[in-house]
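Run log, item B.
One chain of 307 residues. Sequence copied directly from the ordering sheet:
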Amino acid sequence: MYALEAKDLRKRFKDVEALKGINLRIEGGSSFALVGPDGAGKTTAIRILCGLLAPDSGTVSVFGSVPTAGEAKSRLGYLSQRFSLYGDLSIDENIAFFAEIHGRRDYTRRRDELLEFTRLAPFRDRLASRLSGGMRQKLALACALVHEPELLVMDEPTTGVDPVSRREFWEIVAGLSRGGMTVIAATPYLDEAERFDTVGMLDEGQFLAMDSPRELKQGFAWTVVELVCSDARRVARLLTSPEASAGGIEAAQAFGDRVALLAADGEKAKRYALSALAAGGFELVSARFAAPSLENVFMQLLGGAQK
């Protein structure tokens, strides 16, 4: 039996077809990342998988039952994209409140375990409204886990959270996964998706690809030449001109201060790029061949390389 199974899920909001018949099977004890740009359908999919939104067609089962069934609900924990805790309650009081919602009366041992696990124990009397973004998300995670679910579903849990808190949050989630919990998370951050067993790349309501991070990258067709340079976006535009195609460059993707060139012949593309940057007066810090990243894979699937 799968921890979660979805068949041909479709959902439309007026003129927007948010989901176009997606299928998903997630084995118990595994982790799955749902990635995609804004408007890809991630939140719609997550809400349907949790039973918070009804699909127009298709079915969802959680451990063999519909997610709104009592048994399925008790086996599922949900962490929403938005802060949904009570600011005028303390950390302790928020966890107690969610335990009682789930019908748990003897929750003090579990609450203490979660406070230690999330490193919130020293702050247990602090009001939720006075917590940092990272601490709020760890509290939300504790509230989602207080009834001891077997499946944890999260919708962009680290959006707007600082990088250090993001890392701490995912270290905590990794501990849950190692302990046998099934974890599903929607995220816009592909570096976060690297942590999962399987990644589903979603755009415009349908999956473009679904596999392990390793397999997705191994199946990437191009050599990657990474340039660290000034004005990366202008460089990416320069290196996607018709002349750049003659130089062997298939596509260019800008990421911060870096440009990833995709080419069948990496040496030829590198020579052309160095010459073009020198002629254009751009400062080049380094140029090297790099292993493909999930960003490279997804941008290419999206057609988002500036071509």
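Observations after the first pass:
- The chain has a mean pLDDT of 91.
- The domain at 4-215 is CATH 3.40.50.300 (Rossmann fold).
Flagged for discussion on Thursday.
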